[in-house]
Amino acid sequence: MGEHTARRCCLGWDFSTQQVKVVAVDTEMNICYEDSVQFDRDLPEFGTQGGVHVHKDRLTVTSPVLMWVQALDIILEKMKASGFDFSQVLALSGAGQQHGSVYWSAGASLVLTSLSPDLPLHQQLQACFTLGDCPVWMDSSTTAQCRHLEAAVGGAQVLSCLTGSRAYERFTGNQIAKIYQQNPEAYLRTERISLVSSFAASLFLGSYSPIDYSDGSGMNLLQIQEKVWSQACLSACAPHLEEKLGSPVPSCSVVGAISSYYIQRYGFAPGCRVVAFTGDNPASLAGMRLEEGDIAVSLGTSDTLFLWLREPLPALEGHVFCNPVEPQHYMALLCFKNGSLMREKIRDESASHSWSEFSKALQSTEMGNSGNLGFYFDVMEITPEIIGCHRFNAENHEVPAFPGDVEIRALIEGQFMAKRIHAEGLGYRVMPKTKILATGGASCNKDILQVLADVFGAPVYVMDTSSSACVGSAYRAFHGLAGGTDMAFSEVVKSAPKPRLAATPTPGASEVYEALLPRYARLEQKILSQTGSPLK
Ligand SMILES: O=C(CO)[C@@H](O)[C@H](O)CF
Where do the Carbohydrate kinase FGGY C-terminal domain residues begin and end (predicted)? Predict the structure, then answer.
């Protein structure tokens, strides 16, 4: 790779499930460097699949912490070999897969502060972790701990109001509880517990980085309104936990200067600042530059909604996190498991396996589908917990089938009405300035995006979000450098590339869907009461 022209920049890191990725963003907010290390491909000695180890019980899922450390060594050496000028880096921040946890052994902080620049990180940190295999977000082995936590605080809804989510198996507090119960000796030898995000920040700081409010919201431990650890939740999970976690900080905090290790080994400038790392989803919200009233719809295998909320209504579904770029606001995640696989199934059955036939069906059917409504859940849906397909005609009578083109519109209108209804259940409201940002595979289909714009009554934009967590981390580094809470994030990133307008609401759309949405919601509740498992 050729010499890089020296340009002042910020680095954005992403310690995700399958890779460590980095982007450099210059002061004009353009990406000027990117690189990655794939765990399975570049570190095969760890034997991961998709970056993880799925254990024999099929519930426990972990990743080797030293694989993450060695991946950082490799990517820094790749950058150095490519001629990247580290002295131009003004600040750096990053993201980590949410909910995962890292267990630093007693004395590890002394090793972190005295790293030799002559050796790679992984050789020096070998003995710094009480657990070599860290639980990650794909783990679902802590159901018992979830029930215990909910009971300890007064129930699922109480826990959701307190921490932003009911208890979920992957959430860190429940994972820590399991480790304390099953490996108390390791727990007691642990002097610090980090999230993947704050672990990565610690590597750059050369000391323990605090957990930020936004990623800390994914632990079932942080009171998201007060931004303090919940004593009731801490006590229900493990003893002396608060001292192992440290105090949480605003996500835009400068947590320190880069460790001398990087100055001496790679040529970083001594003044390079480290801004608190956060979770991959909060970082993506920053990368997509969502603002109040906006909603991002990731149309992938499962569909994920990112919401910006001023006043959340925590519920028994979805997750509310502290907002990573506006400390007084919130964000929410809603996951819909029946996403692209469901769309592809209906395409195959009703549009002869053809997206162009699929689009023609949407073009040839009217908004509102003549009152026909469909619910399509091939696998148990998360939001809400329903399985099966249900079709209703304009008279609310359930029918066994629809004609092909009606089926296709019923699927897409149903998927988007569900998203709007459940987003509004978490406190989201479409505002006059609302922008919908569509990402993921289906966002390249303009007819699907037209339905999205019609159902929400808001314009739909598209942008490249393949590195949104990294880019968002670099933006957040600029934000921290500019003073964080004293400076609006939107102001810091205003010169960043703009998303492209892809669809605007059809005239008359709001009348159609304002009438249809309550009907859809009532039918969903009817199906839920008849078939779905009651929310825990
Ligand atoms: O569990 C999740 C969010 O709650 C996932 O999106 C992880 O953050 C992926 F790393």
Answer: 296-479
The answer to whether residues 171 and 136 touch, using CB atoms and an 8 Å cutoff, is no
Q: Is the peptide bond before 499 cis (omega within 30 degrees of 0)?
A: no
Residues 484 and 131: their CA atoms lie apart, in Å, by 34
Question: In the chain, which residues have pLDDT < 50?
Answer: 1-2, 534-536
CA-closest residue to ligand 1 atom 4: 98
Q: Which protein residue's CA is at the shortest distance from atom 10 of ligand 1?
A: 97
Q: Which fold has domain 2-282?
A: Nucleotidyltransferase; domain 5 (3.30.420)
Distances 172 to 217, 302, 326, 490 between C-alpha atoms, Å = 10, 22, 23, 31
User: Of the CATH numbers 3.30.420.40, 1.10.375.10, 3.40.50.1110, 2.60.120.380, which one belongs to the domain with range 289-462+506-536?
Assistant: 3.30.420.40
* Domains 2-282 and 289-462+506-536 are alike in CATH topology: yes
**Closest ligand 1 atom to Cα of 168:** 4
- The total of other beta-carbon atoms located within 10 Å of residue 37's CB is 22
Chain segment 61-73, per-residue pLDDT in tens: 999 999 999 999 9
**DSSP annotation of 484:** G
At residue 535, the pLDDT reads 45
Q: What distance, in Å, lies between the first and last C-alpha atoms of the chain?
A: 53
Q: What is the ipTM of this complex?
A: 0.98
Q: How many CB atoms lie within 10 A of CB 292?
A: 14
**Secondary structure (DSSP) of 501-517:** EEE-PPTTHHHHHHHHH
Boundaries of every domain in the chain: 2-282, 289-462+506-536
Q: 364 C-alpha to center of ligand 1: Å?
A: 38
Please count the residues of the chain: 536
Q: What is the SS3 assignment for 350-378?
A: HCCCCHHHHHHHHHHCCCCHHHCEEEEEC
- List CB contacts of 445: < 8 A, sequence separation 6 or more: 355, 358, 359
Q: Which residues line ligand 1 (CB under 6 A)?
A: 16-17, 97-99, 137, 170, 218, 279-281, 319, 333
Residues 6+ apart with CB under 8 A from 371: 393, 394, 395, 516
Q: What pTM was estimated for this model as a whole?
A: 0.93
Contacts of 202 (CB under 8 A, 6+ apart): 104, 112, 194, 208, 209
Contacts of 369 (CB under 8 A, 6+ apart): 406, 409, 410, 413
The number of helix segments (H) and strand segments (E) in the chain equals 21, 24
CA 483/CA 254 separation, integer angstroms: 9
